[in-house]
Specification:
CATH topology of the largest domain: FAD/NAD(P)-binding domain
CATH class of the largest domain: Alpha Beta
CATH architecture of the largest domain: 3-Layer(bba) Sandwich
Order of helices and strands: EEEEEHEEEEHEEEEHEEEEHEEEHHHH
Distance between the termini: 35 Å
Shape: globular
Strand content: 25-35%
Number of strands: 20
Oligomer: single chain
Radius of gyration: 22 Å
Length: 403
C-alpha cells in the first residue's frame, strides 16, 4: 500500500473498504471475550450520518440539511448540552456564523487581562461572550432539526458496516445506511478511532463554577511556573464565574492541589471574598498541529479533528466554522456522487484557520520545551507564547517576511 507524506512524516492512507456487517465485532465484551452485536433493525437510509451533537456536529447537520441532504444526527447523551465541559468563552465574531438567541449569552466581555507571576499584567481588547453552553448547544441542534435534519439521542455509534454505521439504541443494534459519515464526537472520538486517527495530544483541565461577588467586563488569565504547559482562568458570567486551570497530562495528579493554591491566590488578591462552589467539571483539550481529517467517506470536525487552538484551548469558534464547511461539502459531494469532492473540506478549513493552528502548535512546542529549562526567563517565555502579548505575533511576521 502506498504511503502519503503528511506534516513531515509518512502516513498510511485510509482503506475505504469497510468491514462486512456479518464480520463486525462489537466494542463490548463478555468474560474477557469480544462479542458480536445482534443487529435487529435496519434504519432508514441517509445521505449523511453525523456522530456527536456538539457545536461542530450540529453546525454540519444544519449546513447539510439546508442544501437538501437527508441528515441524521446521533448523540449518546440523554440530554443535549449536558454535562458542560467548557470554559464557555467565545469571540463575539461567532454571532456571524452560529444561529443562537441572546438567551445563550450570560454576559459580554470587552477585554482580557493577562497576569504574570512577577506582578505585571497586560490588558488587550477581546470582545467576547460568556455562554450558557448547555442552551447554546440545544439551540444549534434545534436549528439543525428545523432545517430538516433528524436526531437520535441516547444512541451510541459502535462500528462501521459496509453500508454505513452500526448504532446501539437501548437493547437494539441498527444499521444506519449513509453515504458520508461525519465525526464530531469530541477529543476522545469513536469515529477517529475507526480511521486509526492518532491519539490526540491534549491538555487536561479542571474547572469549578463559583458564586461571583460582583460584575466585571473582562476575563482574567493567570500564569505561574506551577501551571506547567497551561494557565488558570477567571471567567465571569453574571452571578457566577468559571474558575479553572489546564496543565500538561503529566501534571494531572497535581491538578486538584494546584487549583486549591489558585483559589488561595484569588482570595489573597481580593478577587473572591470566599469560595462558594456550585459546580465542577473536568476534561481534555486537544492542543496539536492540524492533521488529516478526510478518510474515504469519513470527515472529522471540531475537537475530534483536533481543531482547538493549541495555546488558548478555545475550540467552539473553529468547531462551528469547520462543521459548516464539512456539512456543505458533504451535501455537495452527495449531489455530485463523487467522494473525491470531500477533499475540499480539508482544503477550505486549512485556508481559513489552518495557518493559525499551525503557528500556535509551533508556539506550544516551544513553550513546553522551555518551561522547565534551568535559567529560563519565565516571564519572557510567556510573553513570546501567549496570545495576549505582542511578542506572540512577532515570529509570525518574521516568518511571513522570510517566506
Amino acid at each position: 500500500m502506498a504511503e502519503r507524506a503528511q506534516g513531515g512524516r509518512k502516513t498510511r492512507p485510509y482503506n475505504t473498504r469497510f468491514m462486512d456487517t456479518n464480520n463486525l465485532v462489537a466494542s463490548g465484551s463478555q468474560g474477557g471475550r469480544k462479542t458480536r452485536p445482534h443487529i435487529t433493525v435496519r434504519a432508514e437510509t441517509y445521505d449523511i450520518a453525523i456522530v456527536g451533537a456538539g457545536p461542530a456536529g450540529s453546525s454540519a447537520a444544519q449546513a447539510a440539511a439546508q442544501r437538501g441532504a437527508k441528515v441524521l444526527l446521533i448523540d449518546r447523551r440523554q440530554r443535549i448540552g449536558v454535562p458542560v465541559r467548557c470554559a464557555e468563552l467565545v469571540p463575539q465574531w461567532i454571532s456571524r456564523y452560529a444561529d443562537f438567541s441572546s438567551r445563550c449569552v450570560l454576559q459580554t466581555v470587552e477585554t482580557m487581562v493577562t497576569h504574570l507571576p512577577d506582578g505585571t499584567s497586560v490588558e488587550m481588547r477581546g470582545p467576547g461572550y460568556m455562554l450558557d453552553r448547555s442552551l447554546f448547544d440545544k439551540e444549534l441542534v434545534a436549528s439543525a432539526i428545523l432545517s430538516g435534519a433528524k436526531i437520535f439521542t441516547e444512541t451510541k455509534a459502535i462500528g462501521l458496516s459496509s453500508e454505513g454505521i452500526i448504532v446501539e439504541r437501548g437493547s437494539k443494534h441498527q444499521i444506519v445506511k449513509a453515504k458520508v459519515i461525519i465525526g464530531g464526537d469530541g477529543v476522545h472520538s469513536t469515529v477517529a478511532r475507526w480511521v486509526e486517527f492518532p491519539r490526540a495530544k491534549t491538555i487536561v483541565a479542571l474547572q469549578y463554577e463559583v458564586v461571583n461577588p460582583g460584575p466585571q467586563n473582562h476575563v482574567d488569565i493567570f500564569f505561574h511556573e506551577e501551571y506547567e504547559g497551561g494557565y488558570a482562568w477567571f471567567f465571569p458570567k453574571g452571578r457566577t464565574a468559571n474558575v479553572g486551570m489546564g496543565v500538561i497530562p503529566a501534571k494531572t495528579s497535581l491538578l486538584s492541589k494546584l487549583m486549591d493554591n489558585f483559589f488561595h491566590r484569588l482570595l489573597d488578591a481580593k478577587k473572591l471574598p470566599g469560595i462558594d462552589i456550585i459546580g465542577k467539571t473536568s476534561g481534555s483539550i486537544p492542543c496539536e498541529k492540524p492533521r488529516q481529517t478526510v478518510f474515504g467517506n469519513i470527515l472529522l470536525v471540531g475537537d475530534a479533528a483536533g481543531h482547538a487552538h493549541p495555546i488558548t484551548g478555545g475550540g467552539i469558534f473553529n468547531a462551528v466554522i469547520g462543521g459548516q464547511i464539512a456539512g456543505r461539502i458533504a451535501a455537495e459531494t452527495v449531489e455530485r456522487g463523487d467522494l473525491r469532492y470531500l477533499e475540499n473540506y480539508e482544503i477550505e478549513w486549512r485556508e481559513i484557520f489552518g495557518k493559525t493552528l499551525t503557528y500556535a502548535a509551533q508556539k506550544r512546542h516551544f513553550l513546553e520545551e522551555n518551561w522547565t529549562k534551568p535559567g529560563i526567563d519565565f516571564v519572557d517565555l510567556i510573553r513570546r507564547t501567549w496570545v495576549g502579548f505582542k511578542e506572540y505575533y512577532e515570529d509570525r511576521r518574521e516568518s511571513a517576511l522570510q517566506g
